[in-house]
Amino acid sequence: MSEQLNLSLLGEDSLYRARSKMLKLMELSWLGGGSLERHAVTLFSLLRQLQARGFADCVLEVEWDTLYLCLDTPYCTGLELCDPRWRLERRGKRCCVAIDAPGMGETDPEVIRGILDEKSREELLAEVVASNAALSRYQAGLEAEIVRRTEALRQSEKLSQSIIAGAPVGVVVVDGAGAIKDINRTALAVFGVEAGAGLPATLGGWPGWRGTAAARRAEPGLAGRTWPRCPANSGSCC
Q: Start and end of every PAS domain (predicted)?
């Protein structure tokens, strides 16, 4: 059985979380209560020494009846282990503090993985805070995008209205039901209506619309028929 976990050594809370992980693993061994209480003090002293030496993290390895606290350096002389049963070992290119935990190797590996994967209340709270912050950033970005698109739509509609109003030909904008949505002055002149006069809601209400080729195309049953083009400058609406 061999499991490992990266432990952060940044900040006081990280030291307490690292010690808590190691003590829970040592509780699986045959060590007595007095030994665990002593280890709680010595472990914290060891972790504080590592932090003071500038180590930002270390790797906790669990291998049968031994815990290894491995550092990213081949040398770690001068450490006070605080317990005569602890020892320094080289594992590959890393210097490790070996801590015996007799009987731990007989524990179900899933239990050990559960301890290593378990998150503290502070870690869960930090994840919630980070998630809320990410959600707030996403919401702010979404609101900004809505504002941007709304403004772009307003500018587009303003440009369309400007083009329609200044067009040299008559332009009437209608929806699928034939309701008039926009009309320019040229179209009003074609229909013989003065600007500002009462306008019908649909094209069918225009006296000048009935009888034109365009009106006949809109009549039911006449779709697909070809109508003659209006003579140039005839002034009629086709």
A: 161-196
